[in-house]
Amino acid sequence: MKAISVFGVFVADLCFISNTIPEKGQTVLGSQHIIGPGGKGSNQAIAAAKLDGSVNFITKIGKDKNGEMALALYRDLGMHTACIIQDENHSTGVAGIMVNEKTGDNAINIIPGAAGTLTNDDIDSNLNFIEVSEIFLTQLETPYKVTSHALKKAKEKGLATILNPAPACKIDDNDFKLIDFFTPNETEAEFYLNKKIESKKDIKSASEEFLKKGIKNVVMTLGEKGCYFANEKESFFINAFKLREPVLDTTGAGDAFNGALAVGLSKDLDIKEALTFANKVAAISTTKQGAAASMPSLEDLKNY
Ligand code: RIB
């Protein structure tokens, strides 16, 4: 199996659960408060590790209680921790997450903390971990110029790159050419193309526009509608996995999908199989509370 390098952010998720997500100016009485591991990069690395992926996670955390939570979790999962930088001058990041317990929807505000101070040198000093991998997975919570540098280095070393463009922020035109798999959801795709994506036709034409930017493969995640894949040779929709239980919390579902896609590719599954696998992992993650805490293992998948 091919090794996977993940570059991204760990934060402690402070989750506030109630029967509605407060609107501007509104105060609501919640029913539960959970503190757990989060951050898109870390969630994706954990998702991949729980599916038996061989994962190197590159990040920066503080020397504090939340940083310890991350390290303890990685050690428990048998993940390599050698490329996790600990910075005593900055705190580990945090995210405030409002979850609607009736629908599982959320609203998130993330402060990357120590991971927001990552530099190009941090990538260069971990190049040995990147070059022993064949797949590179990243998002947009780290400083953009460092993400861009990391993508360039991964490409130079011949890795297949996956960019999960979340949270959506400007991507330099030249960087689109460094992306082998681009995995926006519909909202993120709308941000990049500056137009509404509502119908199947919109999804297809949006994917064509992304391919024209130099991306090799587009995977648009569509929530309860599954996902859409397109490259120069083929394009198709894949339905979402049908759950037996109701959706409890969608936080981290996109991360589950991306981590599982990386594992599928690392096992040389064909793209349809890899996406079907990723859809299943993402769907099952929504039946549990939390982000990293909801990532299913291979055993969970087998028993489902
Ligand atoms: O994708 C979900 C994640 O986004 C949460 O864990 C939160 O930390 C934010 O990074």
Topology of helices and strands:
Elements: E1 3-7, E2 11-18, E3 32-38, H1 40-50, E4 54-62, H2 65-76, E5 84-87, E6 92-100, E7 106-113, H3 120-124, H4 127-131, E8 135-138, H5 144-156, E9 160-163, H6 173-176, E10 181-182, H7 186-193, H8 200-212, E11 217-221, E12 227-230, E13 235-238, H9 253-266, H10 271-285, H11 298-303
Parallel strand pairs: 1-4, 1-8, 2-6, 4-5, 8-9, 9-10, 10-11
Antiparallel strand pairs: 2-3, 6-7, 11-12, 12-13
Helix pairs in contact: 1-9, 7-8, 9-10
The site of alpha-D-ribofuranose (RIB) has 15 residues, from β2, α1, β7 and α9.
Architecture overview:
Strand 4, helix 2 and strand 5 form a beta-alpha-beta unit. This protein has a 9-stranded mixed β-sheet, sandwiched between helices. A 4-stranded mixed β-sheet has the order 3-2-6-7. With 304 residues, it is an alpha/beta fold. The protein has a single domain, classed as Ribokinase (UDP-N-acetylmuramoyl-L-alanine:D-glutamate ligase). The protein is built from 11 helices and 13 strands. Helix 1 crosses helix 9, helix 7 crosses helix 8 and helix 9 packs antiparallel against helix 10. It binds alpha-D-ribofuranose.
